[in-house]
Amino acid sequence: MILSLTSRVLVLGMMWLGLSLLKWDGAMSPLFWQALIFTAIVLVGSLMEQLFHYQGDPYILPVVQAIMALGLVFVVRVNPGVALHQFWWANIGLLMFYTVLWAIRDYRSFGRFRYIWGLLAVGLLLVTLVFGSEEGGATSSLKFWGFGFQPEEFVKLALLLFMATYLVENEELLRIGTVQWGRFSLPDWRTLGPFMIMVAFVLGLLAAQKSLGTALVFYLLFVLMLYVVTERALYLGISIPIFLLTGTVGYMLFRHVRVRVSVWLDPWQDPTGMGYQIAQSLFAIGGGNILGTGLGNGIGASTVPVAISDFIFSVIAEELGFAGAMAVLVLFLIVVMRAFVVSIRAKDRFGQILAAGIGILLGTETLIILAGVTKLFPLTGLPLPWVSYGGSSLIVHFILLGVLLNISNATATSSHSTKNKGREYAT
Amino acid sequence: MRGIRQVALGIAFSFFVLSLGLVYWQVVKADTLLKHPANRRMILMENRVTRGGIFDRNGEVIAKTQLINGKKVRVYTKGEMYEPALGYSTVKLGASGLEGSLADWLLGLKRPTPTQSVQQLFALPREGDDVVLTLDSRLQSLAFNALKGKMGAVVAIDPRNGEVLALASQPSFEPNNLDQNWNEIRSREKDRPLEPRYSSLYPPGSTMKVVTSAALLRSGVNTTDLYECQGSTIINGQVIREQNDKAHGWVNYNMALAESCNTYFATFGVQAGNEKFLAAVKGFGFGQMVPFELNVPRSSITKAEKIPTTLNTNLLAASTFGQGEVLVTPFQMALITAGIANQGVIMTPHLVERVLDPSQNVIFKQKPQPWLTALSKAEADKITSAMVTAVTDGTAAPGALPNVQVAGKTGSAEPGGDVPTHAWYIAFAPAENPRIAIAVMVENGGTGGGAAAPIARQIIQEALTRK
Fold first, then answer.
1. What pLDDT shows up at residue A43?
2. Angle formed by the axes of helices A115-131 and A151-176, nearest 10°
3. B70 touching A (Cβ < 8 Å)
4. Which of A216, A213, A167, A185 minimizes the C-alpha distance to A382?
5. Would you list the domain boundaries of chain A?
6. Which end of chain B has a smaller Cβ tally under 10 Å, C or N?
């Protein structure tokens, strides 16, 4: 009780300190009220947890709220003009998180929809490809009443549910295999077919939209979830040549892939042209040194393109320095690792797989965009969960968090009610 | 559960690799990135500082930063009068001149006040320090206007403390709206307005004779002994000519300097020998970097070496009256004059009188410091008396002033080729208690007495009536 409240007060205190250090440029009053509402939701939510006897993982939510608070401060820092939207989405997202956490009695009911999730995912991507508008080189945005809407974020949710349902159903067949092929025994076409078709559709559609980052995240999600469930190195082994092959084909076929790679290999060749983004990102990060320039003092917010979404980490790394950037990494690592802990503790296979999937999704998203802005990997546009500006991403990640903590809470309550029976884990 | 643990381990390891990436960029490569030409960090950071103002010794504004339509604009209230010494500072072109060399004061980086260092630490908008110069706008404007239409420089120094009172160069350029005019200014190759002529190298001509005098006096030449000038002489097979081949007849040291007799200085200079001559020029600061806020090239005796270890007789003979390969900056010539005026001691020249922090507390005040001892007091007195003769009875007569005794020396230096001579004039006044030392140089201006001395005369008059 005390710990949970203190952590929230700390997180909120940091947010208010950050906001008060920044210049708000006239947008002050509405932002102030939204920040106040955010504060209220966080505090009331924390009390509700006591009231409803929340027994799930105690670390994940405060850590995510810390990430969220940091994100809000930096969105205000980069562009106070649009920060109001981000506060809306954060507040709505938090409310949705609590709704998912408390309103869903049994997360296993998600499993009933089976392939509906898969169809929903493919459908969403198709609609985007046909009706979507192009933004930053990728066709990944739908416009509704003036609001940009990123279907691929919602696809993450649908796909996770599909994967979990599918893997639970076919676990044994995937694990053992029914068809002998040389030394390896592979699952038959009836088992693997629907999965392969889904993978091909999703990745193909994302490639057509030029959403390379999301495609990569999904590919890793498919492969790692398959591995987590089956524990067969074979699937990992197959995935690498497939990745290299598609990568090479993509490199030869598409100019924008070639540009990404050549800029990644040498952004200094043309730091004012193609390499501009990554060069400016590195100038910003490098300028941060150990302790950073201080909040609001960096140049990255004005020099780095799309500093508010894909490159927000560059601004954080500049203004909070290596120390702050490491803190952000550690916060994300905590969330991912605790998600795996939730997965390991879950009583049923569906919950385990779903929680592991959420952990893998968060981990890969964070890694790919952060490796992109630090030039460890070719840059692919992705929002940093809870930090980057964007409503779709925020809301989807809060729903995912709700599902994760719902699983965690259900695990804990069931083991309390049936003290000695719950010792044997599922599988 | 093995699979999930392995995936967790893999992700944790990837995060570790990512943190190594951060170490690489933020610690290992930070300086390299900062120096990358495409990195605008330094320029953007400087934008946050309001440059301090620059004032003349009477408190008149020379440069200040003003907010015009919400934008910071550097305004040079005196226009081209102080250029190119003052320089400029723009985001596009960077900074030069005093704006460049005094940047650490003007940006509040040198000896920051506690407020400034906190603001600097957090890179907050802050104000730089104000710099008060030793320059005097009245003398500067006189010098600048007198040189108008000519190419040349005026340097005026207070010999007692090294304060630079005027530092003018013509042609000059308009420092306001420089970004727009830059290409036009740069393309003027003939009159080169960006070149600070007070620190350009020229042959000094006969003004060099005051330096040669030191060698002569130290070699034991009796200043009252007479020498017969026949209009030309031959030393070591080399013909030494007088200007216009004029024979000065029987002259002593004072008369030789006053009449600017080349053969006298060549004959006795060679007699004194290259060692004494080179020691004398070294004593006057040839071959040395001038400790000064602006960069002044080293004056030199030969092309090969600033100060050679030996000098052959022919080159020595030509050097004694400022020809041969001798090259001097007008600034150096002013320092030499100031040294003679200050009983042989050259004070360290400086342009910054004091520095004020944003709340107008004095945080730095220049103290006079000797730089070189060029002459003994006796030697300085002898040269002064000869220079006074030059003004009263010699070639420097156009520099004379009523009621004030002026010590001066003209020079008409042959730059080589069939072009008019560079007109030189050095002087200080009042001769018995000097308050101003001055060097004037007009490129291809003709004779020193005709083209340079009248300019110096005006400035000296103004400077002396001030107090």
1. 93
2. 140
3. no
4. A213
5. 109-423
6. C
Could you please report the per-residue DSSP string of B256-309? HHHHT-HHHHHHHHHHH-HHHHHHHHHHTTTTS---SSS--PPPBSSSS-SS-S
What are the DSSP calls for B353-419, one per residue? EEEE-TT--EEEE----EEEE-S-HHHHHHHHHHHHHHHHHSTTGGG-BTTB--EEEEEEE--SSSS
B18:A374 CB<8 A:
yes
Q: Which of A374, A375, A424, A425 to mutate to test the interface with B (most CBs of B within 10 A)?
A: A374
B176 Rama class: left (phi>0) / alpha (psi -120 to 50) / beta: beta
Tell me if B8 and A289 make a contact (CB, 8 A cut-off). no
Exposed / middle / buried, residue B175 (Cβ in 10 Å: 0-12, 13-18, 19+): buried
B299 contacts B201 by C-beta, under 8 angstroms:
yes
Phi–psi pair at B173, nearest 5 degrees = -135, 160
CA–CA gap between residue A313 and residue A381 (Å, rounded): 12
Nearest C-alpha in A relative to B120: A293
Q: Do residues B7 and A228 lie in contact, with contact meaning Cβ atoms separated by under 8 Å?
A: yes
Q: Which residues of chain B are within 8 Å of residue A326 when distances are taken between CB atoms? A: 19, 22
pLDDT in tens, B279-320: 999 999 999 999 999 999 999 999 999 999 999 999 999 999
**Of B271, B350, B346, B279, the residue nearest B310 (C-alpha):** B279
ipTM of the complex: 0.92
Q: What is the pLDDT of residues A297-344, one digit of tens each?
A: 788 888 888 888 889 999 999 999 999 999 999 999 999 999 999 999
**Are residues B155 and B459 in contact, defined by beta-carbon separation less than 8 angstroms?**
no
Between B247 and A419, the more confident residue is B247
Residue among A299, A353, A365, A369 with most chain B CBs within 10 A, to mutate:
A299
Give contacts of B 15-44 with A, CB under 8 A. Answer: 15, 17-19, 21-23, 25-27, 29-30, 32-34, 36, 38-41, 44
Task: Determine contact, residues B409/B383, Cβ cutoff 8 Å.
Answer: no
Asked if the Cβ–Cβ distance from A371 to B18 is below 8 Å, we say: yes
- Tell me how far apart the alpha carbons of residues B438 and B153 are, in angstroms, rounded to a whole number: 11
Helix (H, G, I), strand (E, B) or coil at B15: helix
pLDDT in tens, B28-73: 988 888 777 777 777 677 777 888 999 999 999 999 998 888 788 8
Helix (H, G, I), strand (E, B) or coil at B341: helix
Q: In chain A, what residues touch B25 (CB-CB under 8 Å)? A: 282, 285-286, 374-375
Give the pair of three-digit tokens for residue A82.
């649009």
Q: Best interface-test mutation with A: which of B17, B26, B35 has the largest number of A CBs within 10 A?
A: B26
DSSP readout, A64-87? Answer: HHHHHHHHHHHHHHH-HHHHHHHH
Chain A positions touching B3 (Cβ under 8 A) are 227-231
